[in-house]
Structures are given as structure tokens and as C-alpha cells.
Here is the input.
Amino acid sequence: MKGLSRHTLGRCAAMGLCFVAPPVLAHDGGDVADYRLSGVSLSRVRHLGSTAFEMRMPSSAYQDPAKEQLSDRNFMAWLPLDFQDGTIEVDVASDLATDAPGYARGFIGLAFRIDATGRFENIYLRPTNSVSDDQVRRNHSVQYAAYPDHLFDRLRRETPEKYETYANIATGRWIRMKLVVSGLQAILYLDNKPTPALVVQDLKLGARQCGGVGIWLESGTIAHFRNLKITHTMSAAGQ
Here is the structure.
């Protein structure tokens, strides 16, 4: 459907339709006004020597483990695109806010196939886990989840270690994320390495799920991102 505007594609995604999109729908992330904001603020800043987006959540939204079960939620800035299969590339960096709770890990990641009902797939990072001296925490540096029914706590309980792994990452630096999505499969590459950091073979929302793409965070994170590029491909599921 070459020539469709981002607005039109967003409306198509909202109606549950997936079209063959132009090869590249978004490059360098666009402008602040292009994003829909789910519980976060977004601005343009200079960070680590380059122009980037800065995203924050209010401290009032931090989860309180004394009152609730810690889990993945839907705080993110996202583009209302019509993404089903293809490649998402972005540089992300996270830091802990000064008022970050003790369980904060610098949570930051990619949400994709965000539909009109708010469901989405998500692969995210816990950078502080990577440098922990606790090996169990180190093994939880990268995480897959699907909102709202397949969150990290459920996946960890039902299929331990299948949807998370170790990666050599850290807060306070740029991390290159490249996510290749095809049907039920999502493959994550980090920092331009040729070997995948995480392979998911059974995306929980199904091969026909489609929708927006965004940057996700959780409690206590100040998130930055730059160089967002989304490339579409056509799969059998979309034919």
C-alpha cells in the first residue's frame, strides 16, 4: 500500500487490518509530535554527545511492591504504524532516576505490534542486572513479554529461563537493539553482534498481530533513544 500516510496506516491498524507497508515507514524516529504517549513524557535533548529523545514516567506511577505484584505495564512512547513483520533498529540508553525504587533495573525496550486494544509484544533490557554479582539476576538481563496476559512473572513461573537471558549491557551508555520479526519469531541482536542475544519462537499474540512500534520503560528509568528505523517485510501471514 505504498503512499499511505502514517495517519492512514494508524487507522488501519486500529481497525485490525494489516497492509503491505512501504519498505521504510519511520527513520530517525520522527518528531515528538509523531508519538503517542502512554503515561510518559517525551522531549528532544542532547544525551551522550548526540540528539536523542528523552522519556520519563512520573514517580507517582512507580510500582509499590508492598501493595502490588511487580509486573510489566504499558508505559511507552509509540508510533501508530502498521507493523507486522520486518526489522526494528534503535539505540537506547537508560539511567536510574534519583528517586528510583530499589527494584529498578534501568528497564528499557522495544514494544511492537501494538494494537488498538493496547496489546503488544515486548522485548526489553534490565541493564543493571548485567553487572550484578548475583548470577540469577545476571541471567535476567534480557526479557520477552506480551502485554497484558504473558508478563515476565507468568513466563518465568511457567517456563523458567525460556524467555530471558544474560547480555553484556549497562546503564549510562548507548546499546544498539536490532529486532527481526517474522510470523511467530522475534530475534534480538545487541550492539551489532552477529549472534542473537535472544530468540523467541512463539510470540504469544500470534503471527497475524500487527500495529505500532515504540520504546517502553518501567519504574525508575530515565530512557533515551535515537536512530529509530523500522523496515517492513512481507510474510505469508500477511498475504
The longest helix spans residues 6-14. The helical segments are 6-14, 127-130, 135-138, 152-158. The mean pLDDT is 90. The radius of gyration is 17 Å.
